[in-house]
């Protein structure tokens, strides 16, 4: 589909600023207004966003918001996502931000279109626009007895309207679509196999590429013999550029076979890091600590404390392990590059490709395919690899990772070590809190998320350091949110247990944050915390969390038996303000719980000397349907509170809640993840 | 080689050592069946062979020749979705849906041989599948409701 196909029929175009920024940003250069929403002469509505769909249901969420504001059917909204030639420039689909940033902009665009249609009708009917309303794709008048379809009003027009500063949005009470559970508009394509993921994209003349992987990170190619591979029928070319070696073949299986036929000698780096020595190494190899918050006096706080506790915690590297391995198709037309991929940030991808080949970003078009999961990754390199091979052979090339490549050459969630020292007075109030985190990876921003404590404390220091990472650290659901919460919420139980105070009561005593208190009390009531039954081998744990503007509290029941721990029940209090699609939000929270359960109980990337040792699902245990607990979600946010994120906050406290529950069952404190191998 | 897929006959000329998954996706362009791990550990590649749920990524194409192969594209009856597909839509039993074809095929095979499975039987039949988005609660509900349990929610 090209841009012209529908632009030519557009009767009404609603435009906004050239780029999405949550707040005015002086660094954003001016540009042409971006098209947010169009209505064709036949009434067809399209909306455009730089966000992408990777399973979170954002296409559906946007369609619901537009349908509601414009009074049309949800399934009549076409949502165009992540094609850099067609959609407004955006900052990638991260931080659970789509609903709270783009969603509201599209609602405003839809409301602008609705007002334009009402004004057109008022002119045509020679009535006051205040007497008109909208219903099911029509402007209605005469007390609702007469109507004129949007398509009829727009016939013959070509209008462009900018979203004004002041737009009247529908009141919550008038929502027909938002706030009500909805099936996904893309559901049928997903249950019939017709949805096209990056792994499924085939374009005319396309060849298949495969990359020769070094035996370990940091290895250097010393010698190579490609003679045998070149003789294989169907091999088009062996491409070599320094340490980058790839095969291009007519079929994927031939490319795989040819890679196996290459003999190469590598000199491996002698990094001594492994998952055995990493907990201590993270602190040894850390850069300078950044103090995110420093208030009061730690010293006087500790001096006034009834008792002082110190703990060290560790979380290992985690593989995102999304079901679709990374894939990308690249095609050159002269100096113009088109890439079909599963990247979460199509514009960032475009810019990095342009930089790599030294061309103007305008010459690169990135088109997001359906994305088979991400949780923060999809190899950042796969599009580069496809584009390099495509350029070398002057034909379109698809590179698809296999599972071992995905485990070995995509990114992992940073491992982290934490040191917490706390002081607490006789009343069980925290009086001093010294928190130091050491997150793997040069990107300090990741480790900072969720590091600050939401509890009341006057004397506090929160410091985070980025530590040299032996593996390729990347983004994972909530970034450092889940790992920072793990350390903090385990230490909260440490204090509560040492003081002999109930973990719920201890948290409430130190928490004045209203929305978090709301989550916590709602979850405790729904779970039946007060009436929980103490039985041998059964434990209960609590943790709270904040992320992406939302708040949550989670209460867990576990059963521990024969070196196995099973999560049997999870109750979630969740406040993300106005819930656009309750079923979609619930789906995200359930998924976060299941995913976080894996990080708590079993998951850890094992590595030694730059080699990942467990690069398959047989050796990397993830949650399965047989592990699934009963999950109850209670929404506690107000409808008058703007929507905040729902995709990530659910994962932040769950590992801690599970660890606290296992401790409750066994009596043994947990300091490292994963839990099950240590039982 | 002769392959019967979704009630259609195909003559394919392929190397005998190729997997059924590779031939379905690349020669027959049936991309609804997914590659997830290539080791039979995740279930994304599941198809039916003579009604039995089978991991196509570890099945040599020769062993499927002459047998009845059904892929996700052949499960619906024209525009009428299979009851398991209907239930997955109704319960939004997916997020990214990359694993969905496999879950649906195994569920359809289960209900075919056991129309009224209990919860443990459903979990057991689907335990070889991975949904990394963690939509298991919904998948369980969907299969229960496809099996005609009124209270599946």
Structural features, described:
- The complex is a heterodimer of chains A (about 675) and B (about 150).
- With about 675 residues, chain A is α+β, with helices and mostly antiparallel strands.
- Chain A folds into three domains: about 5-190, Aldehyde oxidase/xanthine dehydrogenase, molybdopterin binding domain (Aldehyde Oxidoreductase, domain 4); about 200-270 and about 325-400, Aldehyde Oxidoreductase, domain 4 (2-Layer Sandwich); about 280-320 and about 410-679, Aldehyde Oxidoreductase, domain 4.
- The model of chain A is unreliable at about 1-10 (pLDDT under 50).
- In chain A, strands 11-12-9-20-17-18-19 form a seven-stranded mixed beta sheet, with helices on both faces. A five-stranded mixed beta sheet of chain A has the order 4-3-2-1-8, with helices on one face.
- In chain A, helix 2 packs parallel to helix 3 (about 100-125), helix 14 (about 480-500) runs parallel beside helix 18 and helix 17 packs across helix 18 (about 655-665).
- Chain A is about 30% helix and about 25% strand.
- Chain B has about 150 residues and is an alpha+beta fold.
- Chain B has two domains: about 1-75, Ubiquitin-like (UB roll); about 85-150, [2Fe-2S]-binding domain (DNA polymerase, domain 1), CATH 1.10.150.
- Chain B has six helices and five strands; from the N terminus they run E-E-H-E-E-H-E-H-H-H-H.
- Chain B has helices at about 20-25, 60-65, 85-90, 100-115, 120-125, 135-145, and strands at about 1-5, 10, 45-50, 50-55, 70.
- Chain B has a five-stranded mixed beta sheet with strand order 2-1-5-3-4, covered by helices on one side.
- Chain B starts with a strand and ends in a 7-residue tail after the last helix.
- The mean pLDDT of chain B is about 95.
- The interface between A and B is large, with 57 and 56 residues.
């Amino acid at each position: 589909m090209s841009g012209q196909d529908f632009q030519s029929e557009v009767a009404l175009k609603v435009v906004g600023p050239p780029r999405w920024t949550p707040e005015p940003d002086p660094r954003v250069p001016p540009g042409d207004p971006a098209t947010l929403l169009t209505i064709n002469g036949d009434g067809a509505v399209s909306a455009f966003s730089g966000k992408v769909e990777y399973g979170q249901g954002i296409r559906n969420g946007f369609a619901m918001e537009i349908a509601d504001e414009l009074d049309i059917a949800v399934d009549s909204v076409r949502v165009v996502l992540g094609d850099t030639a067609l959609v407004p420039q955006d900052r990638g689909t991260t931080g659970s931000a789509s609903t709270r940033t783009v969603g509201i902009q599209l609602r405003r665009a839809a409301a602008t279109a609705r007002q334009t249609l009402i004004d057109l009708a008022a002119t045509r009917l020679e009535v006051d626009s205040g007497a008109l309303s909208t219903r099911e794709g029509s402007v209605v008048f005469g007390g609702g007895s007469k109507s004129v379809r949007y398509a009829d009003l727009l016939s013959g027009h070509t209008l462009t309207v900018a979203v004004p500063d002041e737009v009247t949005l529908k009141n919550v009470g008038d929502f027909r679509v938002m706030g009500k559970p909805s099936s996904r508009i893309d559901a049928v394509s997903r249950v019939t196999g017709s949805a096209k993921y990056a792994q499924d994209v085939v374009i005319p003349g396309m060849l298949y590429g495969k990359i020769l992987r070094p035996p370990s990170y940091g290895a250097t190619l010393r010698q190579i013999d490609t003679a045998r591979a070149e003789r294989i029928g169907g091999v088009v070319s062996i491409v070599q550029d320094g340490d980058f070696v790839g095969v291009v073949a007519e079929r994927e299986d031939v490319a795989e076979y040819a890679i196996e036929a290459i003999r190469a000698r590598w000199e491996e780096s002698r990094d001594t890091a492994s998952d055995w020595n990493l907990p201590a190494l993270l602190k040894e190899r850390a850069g300078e600590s950044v103090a995110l918050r420093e208030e009061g006096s730690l010293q006087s706080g500790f001096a006034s404390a009834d008792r002082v506790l110190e703990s060290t915690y560790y979380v290992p590297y985690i593989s995102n392990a999304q079901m679709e391995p990374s894939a990308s198709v690249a095609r050159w037309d002269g100096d113009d590059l088109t890439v079909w991929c599963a990247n979460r940030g199509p514009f960032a991808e475009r810019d990095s490709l342009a930089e790599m080949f030294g061309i103007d970003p305008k010459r690169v078009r990135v088109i997001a395919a359906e994305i088979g999961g991400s949780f923060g990754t999809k190899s950042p390199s796969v599009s580069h690899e496809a584009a390099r091979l495509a350029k070398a052979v002057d034909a379109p090339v698809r590179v698809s990772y296999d599972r071992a490549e995905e485990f070995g050459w995509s990114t992992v969630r940073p491992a982290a070590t934490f040191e917490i020292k706390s002081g607490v007075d006789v009343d069980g109030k925290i009086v001093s809190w010294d928190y130091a985190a050491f997150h793997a990876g040069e990107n300090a921003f990741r480790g900072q998320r969720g590091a600050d404590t939401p509890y009341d404390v006057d004397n506090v220091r929160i410091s985070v350091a980025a530590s040299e990472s032996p593996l390729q650290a990347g983004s994972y659901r909530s970034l450092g949110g889940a790992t920072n919460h793990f350390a903090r919420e385990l230490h909260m139980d440490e204090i509560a247990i040492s003081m002999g105070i109930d973990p719920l009561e201890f948290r409430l005593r130190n928490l004045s944050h209203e929305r978090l208190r709301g989550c916590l009390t709602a979850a405790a009531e729904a779970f039946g915390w007060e009436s929980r039954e103490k039985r041998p081998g059964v434990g209960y744990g609590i943790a709270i969390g904040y992320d992406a503007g939302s708040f949550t509290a989670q209460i867990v029941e576990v059963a521990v038996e024969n070196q196995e721990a099973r999560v049997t029940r999870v109750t979630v209090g969740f406040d993300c303000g106005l819930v656009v699609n309750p079923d979609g939000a619930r789906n995200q929270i359930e998924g976060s719980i299941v995913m976080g359960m894996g990080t708590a109980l079993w998951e850890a990337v094992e590595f030694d000397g730059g080699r990942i040792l467990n690069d398959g699902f047989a050796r990397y245990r993830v949650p399965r349907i047989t592990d699934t607990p009963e999950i109850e979600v209670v929404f506690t946010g107000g409808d008058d509170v703007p929507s905040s994120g729902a995709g990530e906050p659910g994962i932040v406290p769950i590992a801690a809640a599970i660890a606290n529950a296992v401790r409750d069952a066994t009596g043994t404190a947990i300091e490292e993840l994963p839990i099950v191998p240590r039982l | 080689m002769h392959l019967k897929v979704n009630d259609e006959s195909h003559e394919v000329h392929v190397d005998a050592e190729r997997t059924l998954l590779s031939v379905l996706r690349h020669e027959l362009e049936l991309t609804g069946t997914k590659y997830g791990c290539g080791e039979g550990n995740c279930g994304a590649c599941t198809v039916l062979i003579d009604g039995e749920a089978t991991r196509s990524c570890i099945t040599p194409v020769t062993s499927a020749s002459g047998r009845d192969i059904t892929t996700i594209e052949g499960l619906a009856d024209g525009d009428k979705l299979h009851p398991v597909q209907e239930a997955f839509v109704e319960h939004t039993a997916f997020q990214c849906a990359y694993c969905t074809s496999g879950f649906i095929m195994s569920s359809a095979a289960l209900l075919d041989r056991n129309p009224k499975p209990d919860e443990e039987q459903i979990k057991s039949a689907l335990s070889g599948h991975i949904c990394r988005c963690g939509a298991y609660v919904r998948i369980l509900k969907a299969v229960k409701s496809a099996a005609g349990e009124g209270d599946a929610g």
